[in-house]
Design goal:
The protein contains seven helices and twelve strands. The protein is about 55% helix and about 20% strand. The chain is rod-shaped. The protein folds into two domains: about 5-170, 2-Layer Sandwich (Beta-Lactamase), CATH 3.30.450.20; about 270-410, Histidine kinase-like ATPase, C-terminal domain (Heat Shock Protein 90). The strands form three sheets. It has a five-stranded antiparallel β-sheet with strand order 2-1-5-4-3. The protein has a five-stranded mixed β-sheet with strand order 7-9-10-12-11. A two-stranded antiparallel sheet has the order 6-8. Strand 3 (about 115-120) and strand 4 form a beta hairpin.
């Protein structure tokens, strides 16, 4: 999936859901505040009842009416308080509004509660009747601020809403990122599988074609080999040298065809317990035999034994092919090898300090029949094929003038 399609099908719908959630929460906040306001009013009525009981006890103790409100004036959330007698005459009062008491005594039938707007916000008015000593009736008039309680709840609501939106946004981003990575990984695997399938079909066609050509060529070559053998035995001494040369050329062609046939055959592994040190030693010995003029062509310091199960002959061949390529590129310093155990198995690095591999070449370095030197160009391809047959992986990194680094990852350890 392209980035544009991912944006349209995943990111935009998620943002839309976040906006819908925010809008629904905003519209629902007024209903929630109304319900909360009802709960707060119930709590304040209960508090007013408790306050009336306390004032009643003070009156029963003989305290003058104009002094019983002192302990309660200016309490938390109380903007004004007044004590009225049975005729609703004000006996004592206190207010935070500079001597203003918003109570109209013209209306003799006052409700138990009502709300007014003030410069300090909404004020809940409570008119609570109660009895004191000698069954005298009184009224307690209170003004509670709703803004303090509602403001705290509204602030908490906004904070909780912001926290939920933040968590949803973070979860959405993580989810979207995960979906995108999974999709990208799936597409990469699909492309790799398609490329591998096409490659296998291509090499299957090459294999069939080469097998047919080899069969057609081998028969005449066998006849030529027998003819040269007969000419060597019965021919004149004057042409003996030419006959020997012809025989060698026929044998060279035959060996080349055999190499192509072996190259296209499927690999059959015979695994056995091995150590990396033994494999590197085998490849180094083959390299010394191939390049006797290059002494100490490989530099390797073995450490703790690294064990794996592999086909010794094939892995030695793969290492030899890579080392041969590195030695041909490096003319002065030895090729460095190091091996280590990793979480995925065993990693072997082969580093040369040659001129490096050009970017145009490194893309095709493992392709069959691709070479910048003499030869058929199958050595590195065969090394890659052997390593992958062992469920491993080989990669190469290079910069011009800084040599090349081949990294082999094999299961084991």
């Amino acid at each position: 999936m392209k980035r544009k399609d991912f944006f349209l099908f995943f990111f935009l719908p998620f943002v839309g859901l976040i906006l819908i959630f925010f809008l629904a929460s905003y519209l629902n906040s007024s209903r929630i505040q109304k319900q909360v306001k009802g709960v707060i009013e119930e709590q304040l009525r209960a508090s007013a009842g408790i306050l009336a009981v306390g004032i009643s006890h003070l009156l029963e103790e003989g305290r003058p009416p104009d002094t019983v409100l002192g302990p309660y004036s200016g309490g938390s959330g109380i903007y004004y308080i007044a004590l009225l007698d049975a005729e609703k005459n004000i006996l004592s009062w206190s207010s935070q509004f500079e001597g203003y008491l918003p109570l109209s005594l013209k209306d003799k039938d006052l409700p138990e509660s009502w709300t007014i707007d003030s410069p300090a916000g909404k004020i809940l008015n409570l008119f609570v009747p109660f009895s004191a000593a000698e069954s005298q009736s009184y009224f307690l008039y209170l003004g509670y601020s709703l803004e303090d309680s509602l403001g705290v709840i509204a602030a908490r609501f906004r904070k909780s809403l912001a926290l939920i939106l933040g968590i949803l946004a973070l979860a959405g981003l993580v989810f979207s990122r995960g979906v995108f990575l999974i999709q990208a990984r799936y597409l990469a695997k699909t492309r790799e599988a398609d490329a591998e399938r096409l490659q296998k079909e291509h090499y299957r066609e090459i294999s069939a074609f080469t097998a047919g050509i080899a069969h057609e060529i081998k028969n005449p070559l066998n006849s030529l080999a027998l003819l040269f053998e007969l000419m060597q035995k019965k021919g004149a001494a004057a042409v003996a040298e030419d006959v020997a040369l012809g025989k060698n050329e026929v044998q060279k062609i035959s060996r080349t065809i055999d190499q192509f046939s072996d190259f296209l055959k499927p690999l059959r592994l015979t695994k056995e317990p091995l150590t990396v040190e033994d494999l590197i030693a085998g490849a180094s010995s083959s390299l010394a035999a191939e390049f006797p003029e290059k002494k100490a062509a490989v530099e390797y310091s073995p450490g703790a034994p690294l064990r794996l199960a592999a086909d010794r002959q094939l892995i030695v061949q793969a290492l030899f092919n890579i080392l041969k390529n590195a030695v041909q590129a490096e003319s002065r310093n030895p090729v460095r090898i190091d091996a280590e155990k990793t979480k995925k198995g065993i990693k072997i690095r082969i580093q040369d300090s040659g001129p490096g591999i050009p970017p145009a070449v490194i893309e095709h370095i493992f392709d069959p029949f691709f070479t910048t030197k003499t030869g058929m160009g199958v050595g590195l391809y065969l090394a890659k094929k052997i390593i992958e047959r062992h469920e491993g992986k080989v990669t190469v990194e290079s910069r011009p003038g800084q040599g090349a680094l081949f990294t082999i990852q094999l299961p084991g350890g």
